[in-house]
Specification:
It is built from twelve helices and 14 strands. By secondary structure, the chain is of the alpha+beta class. The protein binds adenosine-2'-5'-diphosphate and magnesium ion (3 copies). Its cofactor is Mg(2+).
Length: 353
């Protein structure tokens, strides 16, 4: 089937990167730095980016990569660089055949820095471009909450493949509906899900493992007969989306259940498997441009699971504009049958009509 090879490489690469992020998650010192925009980056972000780009470069050497991180801070910090190299050089899938297809050890620290910097593509409307967020929700990762390792393949501006690893999400879909997954200390038994999707082939999930891929099962959004019965998801960080506006939209729709707050693209994953129904990300700042690596995989996952994903104007997310979604504002994702109603409420709350 189309893109099956890309999907498998992406799944294995994300699964292996999750072994590294889980290791860092349990370490007290996560090697946190503040980037120019004040957002945090950790050993986990750099290490996961190196491992995933290595797998893409080995299998698809002509593809471009738009990735969140770059190596300049590490080039000035020998101690941190050595700590990351220590992690990266030892992480392997516990299944030789699986590790082989994404493996081939990096030679040394310098090779690791070079591979991290292969993620500097400017993106755009043509060609094969991977969008990589090695840790989405770094603040959640540092808080002990949800985070996700996210990878998507965009071909001529269209998302074809999406893979998201969520080490702290419950494996059991229904448990996810009843537990306050946003604030729970996690990463124990029963946690860790790998989501994947290919355009036209549907969305699936499987437990994350430390070896080869576990068997997958199809996932879909759950039917919501009446919008007032919907559960909505939103981010934990109040600076990333307008929680007051999100609440006003919910109220307008007659939704009384409290929101489920969780960091990262785990929100797209949750609604795609029926653990919640609507994802609202109403803008905080007029000038913030969402990044393609924060949405590409989740966008396709939700659409293939029976949903629609648009911005606050009801426009599909446009991945042809470079590294950011500069022609979109905010994100609204819902079951296809409810999307118009939700967009109407969003536009009323934001005075857009
Ligand atoms: N002002 C902002 N508005 C929307 N998203 C933001 C803003 N600042 C940072 N982000 C991004 O939101 C994502 C996390 O979303 P959520 O809060 O839903 O988990 C991160 O990728 C984060 O980027 P960064 O990686 O630079 O921190
Ligand atoms: Mg992110
Ligand atoms: Mg990130
Ligand atoms: Mg970040």
């Amino acid at each position: 089937m189309t893109y099956e090879h890309e999907r498998r490489i992406a799944e294995l690469a994300v699964q292996r990167a999750c072994l590294l992020t889980k290791k860092v998650f349990h370490e007290k010192a996560k090697g946190t730095l503040a980037k120019d925009d004040k957002s945090p980056v950790t050993k986990g972000d750099f290490g996961a980016q190196a491992l995933i780009i290595q797998a893409i470069a080995k299998n698809f050497p002509n593809d471009e990569i738009v990735a969140e991180e770059e190596s300049s801070e590490l080039r000035q910090d020998a101690a941190l660089r050595a700590e990351i190299w220590d992690l990266v050089k030892d992480i392997k899938l516990n299944d030789a055949a699986s590790d082989e297809v994404i493996g081939g050890s990096l030679a040394n620290e310098e090779a690791m820095l070079a591979v991290i910097d292969q993620g500097k593509s400017l993106g755009g409307a043509t060609g094969r471009i991977w969008a990589l967020d090695p840790i989405d929700g770094t603040k959640g990762f540092l808080r002990g909450g949800q985070y996700a390792v996210c990878l998507a393949l965009i071909v001529d501006g269209d998302v074809k493949v999406g893979v998201i690893g969520c080490p702290n999400l419950p494996i059991d879909d229904s448990e996810a509906l009843t537990t306050n997954i946003g604030s729970e200390q996690s990463d124990e038994e029963g946690k860790g899900v790998l989501f994947s999707v290919v355009q036209g082939e549907g969305a699936v999930s499987r437990p994350l493992t430390n070896a080869g891929l576990a068997p997958s099962k199809p996932i879909s959004m759950r039917p919501v007969p009446d919008v007032s019965q919907a559960v909505f998801c939103e981010g934990v960080e109040a600076a990333h989306s307008n929680q007051d506006d999100n609440a006003s939209v919910a109220k307008r729709l007659g939704i009384t259940a409290p929101s489920v707050r969780l960091d990262s693209q785990a929100k797209y994953c949750s609604i795609a498997r029926g653990a919640g129904d609507i994802y609202l990300r109403l803008p905080m700042k007029k000038d913030y441009q969402e990044k393609i690596w924060d949405h590409a995989a989740g966008d396709l996952l939700v659409r293939e699971a029976g949903g629609q994903v648009t911005d606050i104007y009801g426009k599909r997310l446009d991945f042809t504009k470079g590294r950011t979604l500069k022609d979109n504002k905010g994100v609204v994702a819902a079951p296809a049958a409810l999307q118009d109603q939700v967009i109407d409420a969003v536009q009323a709350v934001l005075n857009l009509k």
